[in-house]
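Run log, item B.
One chain of 360 residues. Sequence copied directly from the ordering sheet:
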Amino acid sequence: MNKHHYVAIMAGGIGSRFWPMSRTNYPKQFLDILNTGKTLIQWTYDRFADFIPKENIFVVTSEEYAGIVAEQLPDLPVANILGEPSRKNTAPCIAYISFKLMQQDPQASLIVAPSDHLILDNTAFRKVCHEALSFVNKHNAFITLGIKPTHPNTGYGYIQYEQHAVTDNVFKVKTFTEKPNLELAKTFLASGDFLWNAGIFVWQVKNILTAFEKHLPEMFEVFVAEKDKFNTAEEKPALEAIYPQCTNISIDFGIMEKADNVYVIPSSFGWSDLGTWNSAYDNFEKDYLENAVAGNNVVVIDATKCMVHVPDEKLVLLQGLDDHIIVDTNDVLLICKKDKEQDIKEYVNEVKRKKGDKYL
């Protein structure tokens, strides 16, 4: 373990496509979506704690979730749970941890990762992270981890990369593309020079701050004005002054798509972003009718290829449905065609219009 290696786990999202299990007050990163006995953030923390000192692991989350993080990650120092006063996407979140670390350790190298992704092969993941850290410690470079695609997925962003490696398994990035339509995704897959964007980044903190100064100068200036207050009792009031002035923008749009020193490591470590009920279905064990069932009292009759997530204590008899998502909580029942899962966000908005915030 290297004392200058750090991790920032981003855990501020609300996971609305996993409604009704994922709620505003208790979103999906804090849930055991896959019925494994651990929540998604617990899996993420344990994965990094294998090779990063625990005192160097930070969780950046919404202030309202700080208590849940402390409860679910009892080994994490409470001072390493960083509460954001408002949701402003990933660029302000990364600026916050970067300025904080720069004050603490100017030699810091940082892995930034979402809290709610599935990674099945921890050994392969650790190897790729070490490769990325080694590269950024020698070069002024930003590494993103790209996943070798297995099918034309329209729910992921894509990274196009040069075919000649600059060093073992590290390639220059040519373009980033947001979620494509199916035809474009098929073209990307056929070309052989596109990867899925896993949203996991590695860099030296001093270099990403230089990039903020160049590509997001307004945000940089707002943080610079308050930087001496980080790691002091004044940090929270400083954040409350900073965040209202920050643009709501992702690190991808704000910096990665503009910078000319972005590289990718093509990777295979059993990754899924677990963004939707269909991705959960793909990673569940199935019965002989290809139903994925979480719940101890589910009776299935003439139903196939369904995603079922219901409380253990409730008897559920499922008959005649094919290719549906069925999710039951104590106050909401969702029954939705699997091919309509990308519309769940819209359905949640409809619930909000008709019923207010009670069920969100």
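Observations after the first pass:
- The chain is about 30% helix and 25% strand.
- The mean pLDDT is 94.
Flagged for discussion on Thursday.
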